[in-house]
Amino acid sequence: METPEAKAASMTGDFFYGWDLLFKTIRADVNKKSDVLIALVHFLLTKHYKFRCVGIGDDKTLSEEDVGSELLPDNWNDDDTKYSLRYEHEKVLYLLIAHITEEDLLLNLLDINTKKVSNICIDPENLVAAVKGNISTLMPTASEIVERFRKELLDPVFTGNSCEVTTQTSTEPQRSNGADPLRIGEPRRGGSFTPGGYEPRPFGFPDIGRGDLDPLGRGGPGNLFTFPSRPGLPGNGMPFPRFDPFGPNDPNIPNRGPNPDHMRPPNWDSDYYL
Fold it and tell me: Is the pLDDT of residue 55 over 80?
């Protein structure tokens, strides 16, 4: 398996071609590990993104007198707490601002026109092994550092491939014609009450009392019901009084018969409804 050191060394001949020349021009100025990382960002911007450095500072105006270069300007690392570099790409100004903290280096890249800004926080102590030597000596994991710079610092601003999480504005869903905005779930078929919903009554028995059990009133008769409609039968659709089914007998009163209210009415004809 290829080690990070070997991978960085193998990239020297192609991707990092030109790094040695750049680093030679600033070698005498590099005195801290964060300098090496700033030099790497500068190398990416000037070689692979075709930027040109137009000086130091945080001036947000670009004049005709600003002449870009692939080299780092004089005094680019004089400040012990901050780096401020200005870049130009096709007449658009970009600012690279980096702040040195006790342990980290916080970098920001700003597009002056679009106001897009990116940021990345890295640890120079862990990423930079030395301040003198070739690329593999300076940064054993140089290829991994490059990928982080590309994805988190450069591409979000320059190409618009932002890594920021956006929120979508939710819109009210269109309602179908006649839909009840307070309805919960899909309408269900009539049937007997069960804990999970309503199931059809077996054997075609009348669906009596189900409506009283449904707090949302999704159809179905209550205890005030109409007699089931059957061709040829009297009373179709006629309302009947409340149906109060009698429950089990009181166990404290043995052999108790039905309540007199449940006896057959006078002149009862059992063949009337047949």
Answer: yes
